[in-house]
Amino acid sequence: MSLDGDALSVIENPAAVSHPFPSEKAAGDAASRGVQGWFKGIHSTSHAHRLLRLLAAVCAVGLLGGLAVGVWFLVKFLLRPSYSQSTVGLGDTKETPFCNVTEDISISDPRKVFYRISPENSLLEIQLGKLPTWLPVCYERWNSSLGTLVCRQLGYLRLTKHKGVNLTDIGPNYTNGFIQITSEHKSNLENMWQLRGSCITGKVIALQCFECGTRAKLPRIIGGVEATLGRWPWQVSLYYSNRHTCGGSIITSQWIVTAAHCVHNYRLPQISSWVVYAGIVTRSSAKMAQYTGYAVEKIIYNKNYNHRSHDNDIALIKLQTPLNFSDTIRPVCLPQYDSDLPGGTQCWISGWGYTQPEGVHSPDTLKEAPVPIISTKRCNSSCMYNGEITPRMLCAGYTAGKVDACQGDSGGPLVCQDENVWRLVGVVSWGTGCAEPNHPGVYTKVAEFLGWIYDMIENY
Ligand code: 4AZ
């Protein structure tokens, strides 16, 4: 697949060509013109003349030196360097000489306990610290709220099913011990588990969480970046006053995640002006009779949203009627708790946003593009966003620009695949221009809002 030309948002950005600074000669000319003007009209003796000429020369040299230092300062500190594609290729995640960033190679995982649900027998398995084995969980003192906590920890919105399974039914595979719940404190899964040699009840937990982040088996597409129906089944188009305004992602049959900047201000009270279209790739199909769109019941935007800094740029939309899941309409999973993706992780964006940085044209067909995560350290360096990236944001894209989200993609998904499920890692939020070198797309970091999302969905 070629990225050039068929990317989500594109190319030929004039900022890619570095602008020459005014030459020192021109600066010197200007300076000496200034010096000449200063001395015009002064008459004196030849001695005084010589003295004055000497003074003029000293001043001119001083001014020139000052100008040279000024130009150097401008280049080094004030003007962000831009790189042409020949110096930094697409996908480059290496250090650039101006940025002075050293990436942390080993990113330490803050988690002490790891959870998984065995795909073979649905048993809940836990890994404590760095122990090499995954252990099943005893059934005693288990309940559904613990099940919900575990599912959420794993990025699934809710618990679907849970039961105790007889140890005698699961075969001889589990000989390394068991995990027993030790705490009554049910809002936090930390430090709740203890190692045991056996389970008193002779039963262990089998679990099923809300299904998300999968797509139907699709014919494979090579060489194109126009998405096909069902490839991003969580992607929705949010229409405001009959116009595509933003993207969004389905997380349950009734809830859509989008950006706060899409819905705040004058648009917020106009609930009836919003329509959500799901299961489409062409916007023109939204007008067809079979896609009547979904009416909106509620819009909740994060109350800490700051429209100046773009911090906390996240909102939830509740539909009046639930979506019917199918091959083309499906929810995306959320990130796991405490998950932090390292720079270079390949993720994808999709949307109906502008396809030219200066353009006003939104494509009819949904576009998709791969974008690697850029570490916050690098994205916050002086050559990128110089400290503007808060812990609630993340960056994805390319040093060279050229592939990026743009206006109209806002609110839409940045998804990354993790062990066969797609997770909503980011929400398209902002960026300086579109596809500019050294200005990658900035996304709301969904992992920072898991508590808020669960809270809103439960209580509204
Ligand atoms: C916008 O205006 C917008 N290049 C969205 C994404 C980006 C820039 C602007 C990222 O909605």
UniProtKB/TrEMBL annotation:
Q: GO cellular-component terms in the record?
A: plasma membrane
| Membrane topology category | Single-pass type II membrane protein
Can you say where in the cell this protein is located?
Cell membrane
Name assigned to this protein = Transmembrane protease serine 5
Keyword field: Cell membrane, Disulfide bond, Glycoprotein, Hydrolase, Membrane, Protease, Serine protease, Signal-anchor, Transmembrane, Transmembrane helix
Gene3D superfamilies named among the record's database cross-references:
SRCR-like domain, Trypsin-like serine proteases
Citing just one GO molecular function, the answer is: serine-type endopeptidase activity
Is the Lipid metabolism keyword given for this protein?
no
Query: Pfam families in the record, alphabetically?
Result: SRCR_2 (PF15494), Trypsin (PF00089)
Q: Which residues belong to any copy of the SRCR domain?
A: 105-155
Q: What does this protein do?
A: May play a role in hearing.
Q: Which CDD domains match?
A: Tryp_SPc
Phylogenetic placement of the source organism: Eukaryota, Metazoa, Chordata, Craniata, Vertebrata
| Regions crossing the membrane | 54-75
- The Peptidase S1 domain covers which part of the protein? 221-458
GO BP: any one term: proteolysis
